[in-house]
Specification:
mainly alpha, globular, 141 residues, two-stranded antiparallel sheet, 2 strands, 47% helix, single chain
Amino acid sequence: MRALLELARTDGVPAKADALSAAQSIPQKYLEAVLADLRRAELVLSRRGPEGGYWLARPAAEISVADVIRSVEGPLASVRGERPEDVSYTGAAQSLQRVWIAVRVNLRAVLEHVSIADIATDNLPEFVDRLIADPQAWRRR
């Protein structure tokens, strides 16, 4: 996520992995593995050589936080490595699948509607501010 936020500020000018690593204090080997995932997901493009580097594959406003998480981590919500709609329970746990589906819906509600551009420009959607205005949002549990 942090590398993409740095790339959002380059206006399409390729950025070297070592510069991204230094800017966000991300270990370079780890960052290169993440950038490979992002490239496979077609969120970043790259070119080798002295004029090479990484840049966003599309405008930052068109890349959601959910896109990034899915490219690196897989589905937003999974249960034992399965999608919530693919799990089933019996007896007293029968309703649990619906809870997992509700969790996914709520994750999507935020992550699919916040873009890299929103974060990079510190212009988060109003609904995010409403959610975090609740003191309970900041309470550790």
